[in-house]
Design goal:
With 460 residues, this protein is mainly β. 12% of the residues lie in helices and 49% in strands. The strands form 6 sheets. Strands 1, 2, 3, 4, 5, 6, 7, 8, 9 and 10 form a 10-stranded mixed beta sheet that branches.
Length: 460
């Protein structure tokens, strides 16, 4: 009998392979049972987080505030960069400073930022310098300062965040945005004073409507007061929620008031914490004129263009006249220097109206000296109250051209006065009409030449 040794060997190898596989399966099953007791529990990795801190903030207008960009639970941080955006209508970025996290313990850093106020966006980045390991833990990356511009709500959106470790590998992290609410501070105001009618006879009621506003974000309780000139005609207490407005009405009984023009104004009392008080008072745009139930004209005001006039130059004076009666009137208006007529006109005024009458006369016909300036209107038919038909202004001086002080000598003091007003026109705060020697509404070199040509002259 012939035995095939090759086939026998293969049969033995297959039996051995099966036994080995059964042993391996048995070992794996045994290890799967013992693994929970033999191996330590796996450690759950903590994901770093970068956040806006505080996450929510309420602040008042024009009150700067700081927020931090903070990091937590980071390992081996070598550099970082982020973009932050906000609503540019609500906020302005005022400053960016590096936080202590990377540069602590004397480490050197490179810190940079770029701000676009128009877009409401900034890019900020920082990195360590040198071949050193990164920083681990939690801390502040940067501090941002903002200035509120307008009340409203605004999110602080953190994005495009990159964290790099010392091997120049990215670090995965989570981000948290912020939120800012800007409110208006305590602030109440008078926004309008409406008066009707503007012409009233003595005894007629005048209605005053005061529009008030709460320009802040807090509910307020305060008083509203209406005045005629400096006399209180009424006070009311009111309350307004933040951002709202209302009208408060008063009635002025004119029975005890004389004829004439009156200023109407209103005030609101300041509330606790209020800083802006400039708008707590408002005056009506127009005067209220109280008329007599009769014929009545008068001189309201005398307004000379200047009170010191160089001899030979024009003297200009404007008279404001009024009709305080209930009838249309025609009457004469006269201006005087002492008893000499400076000018004469006949005018017609309807009831309750006023007019400015200009008189111009050369001073050549007047001697140098002091003159009393006055004006009068002729009484009209049926007029009984004539006390206001005449008005005296005071002294006007006709003197040497260039004598700005009016002391009848042209000297260094006049030169100083001209120098102080040099270059000015009537709308300037430093305007001095007497320094305008030649009456051209401009204090300039031509006035200086006139002064110089009469320097050291005196009268008499």
């Amino acid at each position: 009998m012939i035995i095939n040794n090759g086939n026998r060997r293969r049969e033995i190898e297959m039996v051995g392979h099966k036994q080995l596989m059964l042993s391996v399966y048995a070992l794996l099953f045994f290890l799967s049972i013992l693994a929970p007791t033999l191996l330590p529990s796996p450690v759950q990795a903590v994901v770093p987080a970068v956040s806006v801190n505080p996450s929510s903030l309420t602040t008042e207008l024009e009150q700067n505030f700081n927020i931090d960009i903070a990091i937590s639970d980071v390992f081996d941080l070598y550099g970082w960069e982020f973009t932050l955006s906000w609503n540019p209508y609500v906020l302005d970025a005022a400053n960016v400073t590096e936080g202590p996290f990377l540069k602590g313990d004397g480490r050197s850093t490179f810190f940079a930022y770029n701000i676009s106020l128009i877009d409401g966006r900034m890019v900020v980045d920082c990195t360590l310098l040198g071949w050193i390991s990164g920083v681990s833990g939690s801390g502040i990356l940067t501090t941002l300062t903002f200035c509120p511009k307008n009340s409203g709500e605004c999110s602080l959106d953190l994005y495009n965040l990159s964290l790099i470790d010392s091997n120049e590998q990215p670090i995965f992290c989570q981000t948290s945005n912020g939120y800012v609410r800007v409110i208006s501070p305590h602030d109440v105001a008078v926004s309008m004073v409406d008066v009707s009618p503007l012409l009233a006879s003595i005894g007629d009621p005048v209605n005053i409507n005061v529009t008030i506003q709460n320009q802040g974000s807090y509910a307020e309780v305060f008083e509203v007061t209406a005045y005629v000139n400096s006399t209180i005609i009424g006070t009311q207490q009111t309350s307004l929620n933040g951002g709202s407005s209302a009208k408060v009405s008063f009635t002025w009984n004119t029975t005890a008031y004389a004829k004439g023009d009156y200023i109407i104004l209103a005030t609101v009392g300041s509330v606790p914490g209020e800083v802006d008080l400039a708008d707590n008072t408002r005056t009506a745009d127009s005067l209220v004129t109280i008329l007599t139930l009769d014929h009545d004209v008068g001189v309201v005001a005398i307004k000379p263009a200047k009170t010191v006039i160089g001899q030979g130059y024009d003297f200009r004076v404007t008279l404001k006249i009024g009709n305080n009666g209930v009838f249309s009137e025609t009457f004469n208006v006269t201006a005087y220097l002492n008893t000499t007529v400076l000018g004469f006109q006949t005018v017609t005024l309807s009831s309750g109206t006023k007019a400015d009458i200009l008189f111009v006369k050369t001073s050549s016909s007047f001697s140098k000296g002091n003159y009393m300036l006055s004006a009068s209107v002729s009484p009209v038919s049926g007029e009984t109250e004539i006390d206001d038909n005449t008005l005296t202004f005071g002294w006007a001086v006709i003197t040497i051209p260039g004598d700005i002080k009016g002391d009848f000598v042209v000297d260094i003091f006049d030169a100083i006065s001209l120098a102080n007003a040099f270059g000015c026109v009537p709308t300037d705060l430093k305007w001095d009409s007497n320094a305008d020697v030649n009456n051209d509404n401009n204090v300039d070199i031509f006035d200086a030449i006139i002064l110089a040509s009469h320097f050291n002259e005196h009268y008499p």
